[in-house]
Write a structure and sequence with these properties.
heterodimer, A: alpha+beta, 22 helices, elongated, B: alpha/beta, Rossmann fold, 10 strands
């Protein structure tokens, strides 16, 4: 019977403290949303990708040759540990469409395709001698449908083909041309497949230039790589790439890793904040029921029953909040972010899965925190003697506070402000508890705004400082001489050559872009970390800070660069690092033609960097280049910038979610603690009402106190926010995306401003609580 | 006879508890004159607290009028009613209700902030015999001393009347008597009207007028022709 009545009390209490319970539940909902949502999102991506790679049998090794015959491939396949081997010919084709020149990476596809299998989205595989399969993104960008005829030009011949279907390959989850082409541009770059027969028709013979290999489980790839090198000694062998170094795979796993890194920190922070707030509120709530607990004890209800009663609140709130939060998170969080992920990564057949385990974990933890808080505060009260707990807590020893020593200042204060200051300083613990919501709010907002600032700064620095050019014109072939139709008078012009290298003397043999340009080129700039321009020299190369840090390199160290180019057949050169520069988007190696020529290497430039002398003429210049014949592409810096911004959109959504969550959390925290503060002082406030204090004056007292607490919380929150921002931004750094770590004043001021707004909003809600205070409370005996 | 200060005219108060209406006051009528010492007497539940709430401007009756100095306060809105409490009523509570984080002096000063023609807070504290302890916080004062601060807080506002709700209820006999003595002195010296609400019929003889309440109606109004001094009353 007793339990039933206690249950009744629980339900009535819930009704009585409706606002507060809703607020805590909301806090848990937000924490659970973030935790379950982020975990679900991250797990979805990683689980999907590993299944995708397995299902389509992504290659373990890519081996590049100038050419290799089917017979030689058969021989290679006899190496121990190789499960499957396939040869293919890969070359670039171009399409000249109305508004744009596009590049297609054209592959031959064996009839019995076992490695890097195509996932068909529509139509069929290209089995006919005149059919082609496009990747679905490229097709979508150009509104192609199955059966359309397209024209393709290659170095060998121009042909007309019929689209047999659209599909995706796990080899190209991120379809970008090279490391500098990120995020991918599906309009200008696509992946295409033709049958071996069609390819032979294009190139005129049946040979391959790439070999993809699927090895047996548990085989050491290095051993296989060595074996391949040995067996290829009489072939035109270039180099071998392991799966980890495959560009698309690397970028993709990088993306996933980035999500996983964030998934490790951010949700836990949110959940922790929610837990702390729940903890505080529950313990304060139990504390305020102290005398009731005393009465229950006096009535002979045993401790465990009382404990169970109060734990009931925690379980109920934890369950409801955890369930709602994790459900919302599991369903909506991945939805919010998936669209943006899809813009970068191609994931055919991806469907968001809900993992009940995350829902269970969320509920488990939200209940645990509440139960723990309740248990701890109940234990203290239950330990007291019955008579003791029935009495109110003895009043705190009141002392004069420190500021009062400065009497002139103190005397000038109104009694209301004196009261506010004493309330805060005498109950320091309570004030600190109360400010916790503000601390969390400021911390999370600084993270969010800092993030936003870094993102903007990255774009700004990369596109206004590092890249100083307006147009990037890429020729199909190395530029031997510059034609007369270039409008020389209107532009500043410089040339650039680029090639891929593998750095062989670092642990993971990373590949990189080598940019070759003259010292005088001021259209691409390198900066040191203080913002000074670093000029190129003929003694060594410039590398990126991120790269140097990662591989522990410093100025003067040597790099072994293996040239991946058919021309040099895997020749390795050794260069010294002469400077380290801040690079945000790409991590490139810069060298001068003179430096390379001393090493016996010459690359003819194939890219022109162009700056319009008169910015208004840029359109005209763009058009004049776009109409030239032998160009691969003409890209304006604004296009690249826009593309990069789109690629970073996901981050933007994250920031917005972060800001909203921070506001909801802090609002609930500030509101909750304030309501408890008011409830605790209800007698005092009721007395003020009886004494004739107008309601707005009482509101002002509470408002002032909250403002003081807010100011205090802001002072704590700013350094913790900065620390969190630094931590997260460091974790977030990727090879091709290095965020500048600088907090501008706005990133601090906005959070402060928003926090004040939240406090003010809270006070508007609190007015209702103050209005509801019954003056008769002042006449009641002290409970 | 002096002018009537307060008039209760046909006051009824009905509370709805759940769905059952409870009549707390039923057609209550009485008059309080200026300078009078009035004791409202009644057992708990008789309706005396409701009278106090209505008289103090904390609650409004269901029907009837309360006229104070010619103003019908039952027609006041909340703001005017608050002003009325600030200016005209000096409350003395059973449990003192001092603000714990303000000193004795600050408690008085804080309260007079809302009243225009108030008295000097320090002087008032001196009058109640607490000049030496005015910088102490409530927790550093005894119950009797706290009630004296509360009385000082009430009279410093220079109100029309002092409204005392069981002012000795939480005090021992001797201290309680001293507090009543203080109220008697104030009434005598300042000619300020004192309304004291109690269940203790023993102190009725010290009043000019005794209003007995029972079950929501006035049972009896007695005028003491020969009122006793508190020091002569024992209980």
């Amino acid at each position: 019977m007793v339990m039933n009545k206690l249950l009744l009390k629980l339900l009535r209490d819930l009704k009585l403290y409706k606002g507060q319970f809703i607020a805590i539940t909301l806090v848990i909902v937000v924490g659970g949303f973030f935790f379950a949502g982020f975990s679900t999102f991250s797990k979805n991506l990683s689980e999907y990708s590993s299944e995708y790679f397995k299902k389509t049998n992504l290659a373990d090794l890519w081996v590049y040759y100038d050419n290799i015959s089917p017979l030689d491939i058969q021989k290679l396949g006899e190496i121990d540990g190789i499960n499957n081997i396939e040869g293919r010919y890969v070359l670039e084709g171009n399409q000249k469409l109305d508004d744009v020149k596009t590049t297609l990476k054209l592959h031959s596809l064996p009839e019995n395709n076992l490695i890097n299998q195509i996932v068909l989205i529509e139509g069929t595989r290209p089995t006919n001698s005149n059919s082609i399969l496009f990747d679905a993104d490229y097709a979508k960008e150009h509104n192609y449908s199955v059966g359309d005829e397209i024209n393709l030009s290659t170095a060998y011949k121009d042909i007309t083909l019929k689209i047999s279907g659209f599909g995706e390959s796990s080899e190209y989850t991120i379809k970008s041309r090279d490391t500098s082409d990120f995020p991918p541009n599906h309009k200008e770059y696509g992946i295409a497949y033709v049958s071996e027969k069609t390819m032979s028709n294009i190139i005129g013979q049946k040979i391959y230039n790439e070999v993809v290999i699927d090895v047996d489980d548990g085989v050491d790839l290095n051993v296989i790589e060595n074996e391949i090198e040995k067996s290829s000694i009489n072939l035109n062998y270039f180099y071998t790439l392991k799966r980890d170094l495959n560009l698309s795979y690397k970028q993709f796993t990088g993306e996933i890793k980035q999500q996983e890194e964030l998934a490790k920190i951010l949700p836990i922070i949110f959940f922790l904040v929610a837990a702390i707030i729940t903890f505080l509120t529950m313990s304060r709530l139990v504390d305020s029921q102290r005398t009731q607990i005393g009465i229950m004890k006096a009535l002979g209800i045993n401790n465990s029953k009382i404990l169970t009663h109060y734990l009931g609140y925690a379980v109920l709130i934890g369950f409801v909040g955890g369930l709602i939060g994790s459900l919302l998170g599991s369903i909506f969080f991945p939805k919010i972010f998936m669209d943006q992920v899809r813009a970068i990564i191609t994931l055919p057949g991806f469907e968001i899965r809900i993992y009940p385990i995350f829902i269970l974990i969320t509920i488990f933890f939200s209940i645990t925190f509440g139960v723990l808080a309740t248990f701890l505060s109940c234990k203290i009260i239950l330990k007291e003697r019955t008579t003791e707990s029935m009495r109110a807590k003895p009043p705190k020893k009141v002392k004069k506070i420190l500021i009062e020593r400065n009497t002139t200042f103190w005397r000038k204060l109104s009694y209301g402000n004196k009261l506010v200051l004493r309330n805060i300083f005498i109950n320091k613990k309570r004030a600190i508890y109360s400010s916790l919501g503000v601390v969390c709010c400021v911390t999370l907002l600084i993270l969010a705004f800092g993030y936003k600032g870094s993102r903007e700064l990255l774009i700004e620095k990369q596109f206004n400082e590092v890249y100083n050019y307006d147009l990037r014109v890429v020729y199909k072939t190395p530029i031997e001489y510059l034609s007369d139709d270039i409008p020389y008078n209107d532009i500043n012009l410089n040339t650039l050559a680029q090639t891929s290298v593998v750095i062989t003397n670092i642990e993971d043999k990373k590949d990189s872009n080598l940019l070759i340009t003259n010292k005088e080129n001021n259209l691409i700039n390198n900066y040191d970390k203080d913002g000074n321009i670093l000029p190129l020299d003929d003694e060594g190369v410039i590398v990126a800070t991120r790269f140097a840090e990662r591989y522990n390199l410093s100025i003067g160290d040597s790099l072994q660069l293996k040239l991946i180019d058919s021309m040099y057949k895997g020749k390795t050169i050794e260069v010294k690092i002469s400077n380290i520069s801040e690079q945000y988007l790409n991590q490139e190696i810069f060298a001068t033609p003179k430096l390379l020529s001393t090493l016996g290497v010459y690359y003819a430039p194939s890219t022109l960097l162009i700056q319009a002398k008169d910015p208004t003429k840029l359109d005209e210049i763009y058009k004049s280049f776009n109409s030239m014949q032998n160009l691969k592409e003409v890209k304006s810096i604004n296009e690249i910038k826009e593309l990069t911004e789109n690629g970073l959109q996901n981050l933007y959504n994250m920031i917005i979610v972060l800001i909203i969550c921070a506001i909801v959390l802090s609002f609930a925290a500030i509101y909750n603690i304030s309501v408890i503060n008011i409830t605790e002082r209800i007698r005092e406030l009721a007395t003020l009402k009886v004494l004739g204090y107008q309601r707005n004056k009482i509101n002002k007292l509470i408002f002032m106190e909250n403002i003081f607490i807010t100011i205090f919380g802001i002072f704590i929150g700013i350094p913790t926010g900065i620390a969190l921002y630094m931590l997260i931004i460091k974790k977030f750094t990727l090879d091709n995306m290095v965020f500048p770590i600088t907090l501008d004043i706005g990133s601090i001021l906005y959070p402060v401003f928003v926090t004040f707004l939240v406090t003010i909003l809270c006070n508007i809600f609190l007015r209702k609580t103050v209005r509801k205070i019954d003056m008769i409370e002042s006449l009641k005996s002290i409970e | 006879m002096t002018n009537s200060l307060i008039e209760f005219k046909n006051i009824s108060k009905e509370y709805i508890v759940g769905e059952v209406p409870i009549l707390a006051l039923n057609e209550v009528n009485f008059i309080i004159e200026e300078g009078e010492f009035v004791v409202i007497l009644g057992a708990s539940g008789a309706g005396k607290s409701t009278i106090l709430n209505i008289l103090g401007g904390m609650d409004i009756p269901t029907s009837g009028k309360v006229i104070v100095e010619g103003k019908v306060i039952t027609e006041f809105n909340e703001k005017k009613l608050t002003d009325f409490r600030a200016k005209d009523i000096g409350f003395v509570f059973q449990f003192y209700n001092l603000i714990p984080n303000l000193t004795a002096l600050e408690n008085v000063e804080f309260a007079v902030e809302v009243s225009k023609n108030h008295l000097n807070p320090k002087e008032t504290l001196k009058k109640v015999g607490l000049f030496d302890r005015m910088n102490n916080f409530p927790s550093q004062l005894s119950g009797g001393e706290q009630q004296r601060v509360a009385i000082a807080r009430a009279i410093a506002k220079n109100p029309l009347l002092l409204l005392c709700d069981e002012p000795t209820g939480a005090l021992d006999y001797k201290t309680g008597k001293a507090v009543l003595q203080l109220l008697e002195d104030i009434n005598k010296e300042t000619k300020k009207c004192v309304v004291l609400i109690t269940h203790n019929s023993a102190i009725a003889p010290m009043a000019d007028k005794v209003i007995k309440v029972k079950s929501g109606v006035i049972e009896d109004i007695t005028i003491n022709k020969n009122k006793k001094l508190i020091k002569d009353i024992e209980w």
